[in-house]
User: Which sequence fits this backbone?
């Protein structure tokens, strides 16, 4: 019996030792699994970040840039996996969208009645619509890449044009911007003609472009000259007639014009006739009511 009791006590001590060993093994296994799991998680996270998160972030940046009107190449297109296929598809889509926008804008500009010319800060032509072709005689392909100084600016105005362009490029105020002004330009055949120009800077992510809207004012100048000639002819006719031509406001009765015959026939200086109430005060009292009625 004592031997059994001793043996039983010895067995209990062995089981306790075995349980401790099991606990240590389990703890070691748990630590091993934790380390392996952490390593696997870090590796998986690295794979996800490398293959999905970063490419998607880059893809988002590309699409946002495209939304702002700027097209940039993406590194996704260099990959050989599905993300690379997606990047190449996005690049094609952005290029197609930009080409479509440019074509639509070109059609709108070509439909304008004015010549529309765009140049870079050095004065090199980057855009040339159909009306510019008709007005100056240069085709779009011939004009793009040349400078304004070599195409539409007359020789006598080139030095001033280049100086104004340089001043504007350096931050000065050499160019007249955002308001119309008139100047003389030349056609491809060398003939000169007057135009009205409005120049506006256009800012974009690619840089600054100058847009010039040009209108041929030859007919307007001729019409204005014809009006001046006609007015001068009519004035001479009035001033040589044997009558006193005059003009007065029906609201104020002030004389706004009187021919030089007034002074010769009536003796009053011309400037006196334009004073308030002068002429009506010199009409006979019996005739003033009728004179005012006729006015």
Assistant:
């Amino acid at each position: 019996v004592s031997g059994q009791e001793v043996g039983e006590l010895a067995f209990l001590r062995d089981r306790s030792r075995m349980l401790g060993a099991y606990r240590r093994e389990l703890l070691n296994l748990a630590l091993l699994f934790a380390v392996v799991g952490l390593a696997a998680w870090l590796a998986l996270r690295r794979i996800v970040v490398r293959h999905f998160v970063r490419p998607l972030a880059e893809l988002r940046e590309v699409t946002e840039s495209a939304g702002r009107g700027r097209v940039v190449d993406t590194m996704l297109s260099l990959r050989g996996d599905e993300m690379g296929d997606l990047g190449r598809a996005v690049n094609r889509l952005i290029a197609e969208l930009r080409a479509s926008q440019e074509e639509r804008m070109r059609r709108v500009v070509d439909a304008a009645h004015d010549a529309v010319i765009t140049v870079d800060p050095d004065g090199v032509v980057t855009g040339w619509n159909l009306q510019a072709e008709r007005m100056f005689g240069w085709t779009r392909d011939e004009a793009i890449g040349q400078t304004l100084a070599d195409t539409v600016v007359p020789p006598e105005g080139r030095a001033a044009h280049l100086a104004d362009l340089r001043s504007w490029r350096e931050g000065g105020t050499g160019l007249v911007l955002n308001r119309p002004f008139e100047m003389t330009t030349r056609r491809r055949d060398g003939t000169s003609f007057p135009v009205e120009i409005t120049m506006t800077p256009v800012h974009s992510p690619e840089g600054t472009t100058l847009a010039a809207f040009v209108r041929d004012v030859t007919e307007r100048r001729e019409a204005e000259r014809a009006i001046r000639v006609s007015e001068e002819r009519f004035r001479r006719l009035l001033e040589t007639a044997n009558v006193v031509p005059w003009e007065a406001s029906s609201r104020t009765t002030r004389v706004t014009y009187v021919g030089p015959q007034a002074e010769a026939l009536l003796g009053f200086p011309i400037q006196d006739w334009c004073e308030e109430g002068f002429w009506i005060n010199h009409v006979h009292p019996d005739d003033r009511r009728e004179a005012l009625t006729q006015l």
The chain has a mean pLDDT of 78.
